[in-house]
Amino acid sequence: MFTFLSGIALLIIGYFTYGKVVEKIFGVKEARPTPAYVNRDGIDYVPMSTSKNSLIQLLNIAGTGPIFGPIMGALYGPVAFIWIVIGCIFAGAVHDYLTGMISIRNRGAHLPELASKFLGKVMRHVVNAFAVLLLLLVGTVFVSTPASLLHVLMDGKVALGVLIGVIFIYYIFATLLPVDKIIGRIYPYFGALLVISALGVGIGLIITGAPIPELSLSNFHPDHAPIFPLIFFTITCGALSGFHATQTPIISRTTQKEKQGRKIFYGMMIAEGIIAMIWAAASMSLFNGYNGLNEVLAAGGPGAVVSEVSTTMLGAIGGTLAVLGVVILPITSGDTAFRSAQMIIAEYIKIAQVKLTNRLWIAIPLFAASIFLTQIDFNILWRYFSWANQATAVIALFVGAMYLYIAKKNYWISLIPGAFMLIMVLTYILNAQIGFGLPLRLSWYGGFAGTALLLVLFFSAAKKARASRLQLDEPVDNWNHAAS
């Protein structure tokens, strides 16, 4: 249990130490007004409190990621703890903070617009396609997943199609209505449920003295499984996830002051890392080792693990509430996925979203595409999603590095994790069967060579951007009050 508790402690320490370092490097401007006030439109730009924004942000970025990912990652053994802690502090939280803060400085812009400004206009089209595909896949799968869980929970008494229809109806309202009408009102309660259930499981592990394995050379990972690069695509939301870069602009448009950014963006990623640690530890300790966990996963998937852990640690009533929380999680990421997709498309085609009719013109085709996608098998598509998710994270980290380079600040805090994940992204797609299927050693060579080439291009572009004195932060006076 020492490895587990040490990891939790390091995450908390990381927030109060490295989080402050990142905040200081970025340079908060306390007097600078935020888009929530300057662009206030009553739809997306709406000032909300720090506590409310924090819980909404946690649910936006969470989904089932910090639970299902670590459960699957537990198959690698205690090494999963290392990636969660290091990845969360030095990659994921930096990624979320910089994405959110740079967005605040640029009218609450989404990643495609930021990529266009800092990485070149071509990247705007590339990232827009990546982001919309990611969000459409997330939204669609997060219709099917909670509907299936509810169908089982209700013993099949309600038809699966009916449950899917009900969730779609909710998504439509959550996407079209102002952000403070549904999301702003109910998310804080759902966020509290997520935190309480995770803490309940964590405290239960400690009180019962669960046999959480300690990290050692002998159990570094089971059966010599190829940790690199697969673990970085198994545990994502609990350590680093490009999906977060599509969600943070929702809250960058509701943040009241820049000083709140560390708690909202960096802090909620740390909270997600703690949740991931708890579920990874529970999965490693409650099923008699690797083989037992593998059997449960083979029989019922991560949902079966959640049900068993929740009931064991929290009892029948508490366990049911925890499972309901897991049902809620994908719903609360699915609705914001569709909302983000709508906002990104609106920015791309430059259509303001104040009028309901304008929102409908984008939302109707979006939901129609999602309904169509629910009819096909997602197994292959979801494998591509895993890669596209981390590729998006790399792009966001490079945007952050470019911003800091031009500002003559310590850009290494973003470039180092970005370059590391770029190696993994390239190696994975070169080696994987869904990619080029090359031998692993050759894929590693390609990953390092490709990263070296892209770093040369990055520094070349960065020097030109600095020399041209690219405007990092859009002047408040130039902001359009009717922004999309």
UniProtKB/TrEMBL annotation:
Domain named CstA N-terminal: residues: 4-146, 163-286, 297-427
Superkingdom in the source lineage: Bacteria
Keyword DNA damage: no
Name listed for the protein in its UniProt record: Carbon starvation protein CstA
Transmembrane segments: 75-98, 126-152, 158-177, 189-212, 224-243, 264-287, 313-333, 360-381, 387-406, 411-430, 442-462
Membrane topology: Multi-pass membrane protein
Database matches in Pfam families: CstA
Species this protein is from: Metabacillus malikii
The family this protein is said to belong to: Belongs to the peptide transporter carbon starvation (CstA) (TC 2.A.114) family.
Key words of the record: Cell membrane, Membrane, Transmembrane, Transmembrane helix
Metal-binding as UniProt keyword: no
Main location: membrane
Location of this chain's protein in the cell: Cell membrane
Taxon lineage: Bacteria, Bacillati, Bacillota, Bacilli, Bacillales
InterPro entries per the UniProt record, alphabetical: CstA (IPR051605), CstA_N (IPR003706)
